[in-house]
Amino acid sequence: MSSVKKPETYDAIIIGSGMTGGWAAKELTEKGLKVLVLEAGRPIEPDRDYVEHVPVTEMKFRGMNDRQETLKDQPIQRTCYACDEWASKFFVKDTEHPYTTDPEKPFAWIRGRQVGGKSIMWARQSYRWSDLDFEANAREGIGVDWPIRYADIEPWYNYVEDFAGITGQAEGLPQLPDSHFLPPMEMNCAEIAVKERMMRQFGRDRVMTIGRAAILTQTHNGRAACHYCGPCHRGCITRSYFSSVNATLPIAEKTGRMTLRPHSVVHSLIFDSQTRRVTGVKVIDGQTHKAMEFQGRIIFLCASALESTRILLNSATPEFSTGLANSSGELGKNLMDHIMGGGADGIIPGFLDRVQTGKRPNGIYVPRFRNVSGQEKNFVRGYAYQGQAEREGWERGIHESGFGASFKNSLRKPGPWKMTFHGFGECLPNPANFVEIDKERVDAWGVPVLKIHCEWRDNEKALLHDMMIQAAEMLTTAGAVEIRPYKQNNPPGLTIHEMGTARMGADPKKSVLNPHNQAHDVKNLFMTDGACMASSSCVNPSLTYMALTARACDFAVSQMKKGEL
Amino acid sequence: MERREALRLMGAASVFSVLSSDLFTATLQAQLAANKSGALRTLSPAQNEIVLAMSDVMIPATGTPGAKAAKVNEFVDLILTDWATEEERKIFIEGLAEADRKSNALFGHGYAAATQSEQTAIVQIFDEELATSRNEKLPEQVRAWEVTLLHPFFAQMRRLVLVGYYTSPVGQEQELKVEIIPGELHGCVPAEPEVKQ
């Protein structure tokens, strides 16, 4: 009798099309599944949307950004360095995507809602975790023990690196395992000098290596080598850096088994208390605001750490009254981000007759050296530096005196070599840093928003201070002059490494996800973005999310084949 | 060489396709707003004359065109109109009046009517005053990411003239010879005095 059309059932529904959603789409379609990818934002067409080669002369505000417009629409997003006049269109309008925080405790939630998500604007730095990281919680009795170790994830690092293409230099350091590298990018004159001088002083204790990045230094899997135009966060028409749009989604598309649906704002998941499974997804069409449903046999949450957790919190049932799959009570807790911005810069004298040609979309890296071979400081864990040497261009003239022909002629030539070390420190899991649903507010699509409670604690503040001091010391060792130590007061979130809130663990009473990123409470629900993290390490996390996603997909499909799912 | 050429063409195509979409409208509007002579929206004709003259003293024509030819004044007007706050705008406009006052006091006529050496002398005074005031107070926060114009007039002027000049077609293509797509990376090579065309 019923004339209602039964909604189509997919083998898998993936929520999110960014870093991890793209990987899930590639892996699951290649394994034969019929997949629906739901993306909240608009489609991205590289030919139309990428703007990396648009010269500054074409920009209305010549790179000074549309200040009045962004103050109105993107007051939070505009604090991110990558939200510039070209790329601001890849960041959400804060007016449409509100969230709340405690007074005086800001959290900068930087978001990209479009096909590709933040994988379009990410900084592409790619580092493996080590057992120093995976064992840290157990060793110090903080949070819960990771249910996996390096040996569990190592084959999956290999797997995703071989596909994505990671440039870097092997160093053989136990705290920062080497990847399967494409050839490294070259250091410049001042960096080579700093590296050698540091080696003389610190030996193997503090190594400076070239940055490890998901950027191709040679043709790789049908994608072209980098052409060194510089601003990757504005797109890459040659697909030379890794993003889901550039790399994973095209593979999924080619299988013919992926349906990608943009403008699909996920409201919540549908849970069947009889079968103990999620059966589908409630979606609000981003353009028409119409409610609809999609059904799937398994569901992968890949919407970004906080969006995925928000979806579960909004999917509460009578049984799971505090959020779906939250029998542990851990959903929303232990929010982390790396503390960023202790550092120093200084001038490296000399090499004035030499230059770097080409804009290298990558810097140098000093792997963690604190508390590596034992607990030796008044803080736990550690930090690493990103940085670079560069010869400043005409911009230095803004802060100098002078004018006229000689001033103009001096600004035509590059300035001295300036070296910067910029620290990124580990953040401890702390249940007092948490998110919940703010019952008072909804976003532009009527979806209840998050209230974020998060602040830096003593250990992070101690790391920030030490990274400033040690950066200045390393510059002194390297023979720098005019050394300027600095300590920024960045809110959590701004490093855009937000993670945690649905941690992985062996014990269902203390964690949301099992060692395979599968919800303890709901077997056909997987969560493979940053939400799963039980600690934060100090290295950039995306490579680990990629590896965990590929690993979880392999597990899910093998379970389906065994009839377990 | 072939690879570089292909990338260059691809770059051009990419720019073209981008310009054919929504950015085109924005760019066109900016150009319409900026390029129409007499379409200045904040600077009065007299104030515009001061900006033109002063910017050309700061970045004069040498082997390449200077600030005047690069239409820095139109960029200044755009920023004052669509970017700056009321407070920043007031500081700038007052600074132009101060240039006239200085010129009248020293030379008996306004800045725009002054000779080139008189105009240079006044810029010299502004430059020295700014250097002194800068030495008095150090920046509170190193690396503040926010660009503002909440600075003394001549600091505003210096930023707007330099940005306006070096990001103009004259600045990018003739003065700096910027290569959008270098094609290759070399970390440490001898600086070439002049690239052969």
The level of helicity of chain A is 10-25%
Greatest interface by residues involved: A-B, 65 and 64 residues
In whole angstroms, the N-to-C terminal distance of chain B is 15 Å
Beta strand count of chain B = 1
Structural class of chain B: mainly alpha
CATH superfamily of the largest domain in chain A: FAD/NAD(P)-binding domain
Structural class of chain A: alpha/beta
Looking at how many chains there are and whether they match, the oligomeric state comes to heterodimer
How would you characterize the overall build of this protein?
The complex is a heterodimer of chains A (565) and B (197). Chain A is of the alpha/beta class. Chain A has two domains: 16-124 and 242-301 and 314-336 and 431-455 and 495-561, FAD/NAD(P)-binding domain (3-Layer(bba) Sandwich), CATH 3.50.50; 166-232 and 339-425 and 456-487, no CATH class. Chain A is 23% helix and 20% strand. Chain A has helices at 19-30, 46-49, 67-73, 131-134, 136-140, 150-164, 189-202, 244-254, 305-313, 404-412, 458-477, 542-561; strands at residues 9-15, 35-38, 100-101, 166-167, 181-182, 209-210, 258-261, 264-272, 277-285, 291-301, 339-348, 354-357, 364-366, 383-391, 417-425, 434-442, 448-453, 481-487, 525-527. In chain A, helix 1 packs parallel to helix 12 (542-561). Chain A is globular, with a radius of gyration of 24 Å. Chain B has a domain at 41-138 and 146-175. Chain B is built from eight helices and one strand; from the N terminus they run ααααααααβ. Chain B has helices at 2-19, 22-35, 45-58, 72-82, 86-107, 116-136, 153-166, 169-175, and one strand at 186-190. Chains A and B meet through helix 7, strand 12 and helix 10 of A and helix 1, helix 2, helix 4, helix 6 and helix 7 of B.
